Amino acid sequence: MTTVSSIGSRVGLRVLQTVVVAVFVTVIAAVLVRLAPGDAATTLLGDRATPEGVARLQAQLGLDRSVFAQVAETLGNVARGDLGTSLTRPDQPVSRIVLDALPVTLSVIAAALLVAVVVGVPLGLIAGTTRRPAVDRGISLAAIGLLALPSFFLAIIAILVLALTLGIAPAGGWGGGWPENLKYLWLPALSLAVLRLPQVVRVVREAAREASSHEYVEAAVARGLSPRRVTARHVLPNCLLPMLALVGFDAAVLLSGAVVVESIFGLPGFGRELVTAVGTRDYPTIQGIALTAALFVVFVNLVVDALYALADPRVRTAR
User: To the nearest whole percent, how much of the chain has pLDDT over 90?
Assistant: First the structure.
């Protein structure tokens, strides 16, 4: 009963934090996009812009009011669950734009996280449990080298080598459905996975080294268990909690990285929509994407926090 109550209080606190984050992000995004250089009405009119035409369009879009009045209206709409309507696509509600782009972005993030875990966990275990210092140093140096490479650079190199030179993957675009989307997904996911792979290796390596120093691991070795069984039974489980914490932190990092990678590969996700919205000063779309991204990060951390509390009794009993 105490466990359920403790987890319930933590979830309640997270829900309250979600509301605070939603208000904060909405206000900051609404203010910043309106204070940035440029004007939505001028951008929409383009070469046909005249002072009279700009003033008339601003009045039609409600942009002639003060920033405070516009932000207050945006907060009211968000409180009712209405993200508004795109300025450049008047027939498209922002919620529809977000819902169409969100599955693509989530697919890239999930695939990148899967690649980072599948590759990074074994490398981290090898580095943390090996008795050969050269192997440990080699893996650590390789991880540091990858950490120094930005995701956009890796994406461009991947396109040049794997797509254009070798022709083993499309250079961009998106399929019409699953499983066709997989051939468009794996190269962006690989480019994004390299962004987090060094962190996975480092976290697992440190957790494995710490677990290997415990007496129960030494006892398992003394009983004659093979190194592989010792790692699987006694070392790997101790790496799960640090990995959970890393996933919560990675939610924001992967999301920001996915926006960049999607823009390079031309995927119809948050990246393309955000670049288009910023270029056309589509305020409601920018705000809707920013709010959805913030809620996604909060939701992932809420899930990770609940799983962490279930897995670690020390968290449940902490006050």
Answer: 6
